[in-house]
Design goal:
Elements: H1 5-16, H2 22-28, H3 33-45, E1 65-72, H4 78-90, E2 94-99, E3 106-112, H5 115-128, E4 133-138
Antiparallel strand pairs: 1-3, 1-4, 2-3
């Protein structure tokens, strides 16, 4: 699907606040409701717009610790990797997981209530899958966090 300037404006408005009414979005992009709805539907059908969720305040809910976990492994077999990936998917503490090029094999963003909760997460993970080296970095301050794309 080709994206034009109006589509980009719609996407930017949705990224800013997807709870806005269709009327508000149409007004923000200088269009009317029906064409905006049709564009949104087409972008959903094309997979450009995914599921919609609500953003929660982690600290307000007691999840005060954010760790970035660097993992090195000496295991690279398909069976190990499938088990490792499933272990990550099964743990709600893991907000993000990336496989990397370079010295570090994986990086995880793990959100927990405190250091004790991180240790419980860590112990559970290493009891399930073998890893060569794990380094946990505690985020002292979140400076910027967004999932918005620079449209």
């Amino acid at each position: 699907m080709r994206i034009d300037d109006t589509d980009r404006k719609i996407l930017a408005a949705l990224q800013e606040d997807a709870s806005r009414s269709l009327d508000e979005i149409a007004k923000a992009v200088s269009s009317s409701k029906t064409p905006v709805w049709n564009r949104i539907r087409k972008m959903r059908d094309a997979g450009i717009i995914g599921r919609q969720t609500v953003e929660l305040d982690a600290e307000a809910l007691g999840f005060e610790a954010c760790f970035f976990v660097l993992i090195r492994t000496s295991e690279h077999e398909a069976e190990w990797q499938a088990k490792f990936l499933q272990a990550l998917k099964d743990r709600p503490e893991v907000q993000e997981a990336h496989r990397l090029a370079g010295d570090i094999d994986y990086i995880l963003k793990v959100r927990v209530k405190n250091a004790r909760a991180y240790d419980a997460f860590y112990q559970a993970l290493i009891s399930e899958v073998r890893v060569h080296n794990v380094t946990a970095l505690l985020s002292m301050q979140e400076i910027k966090s967004t999932s918005a794309l620079p449209l």
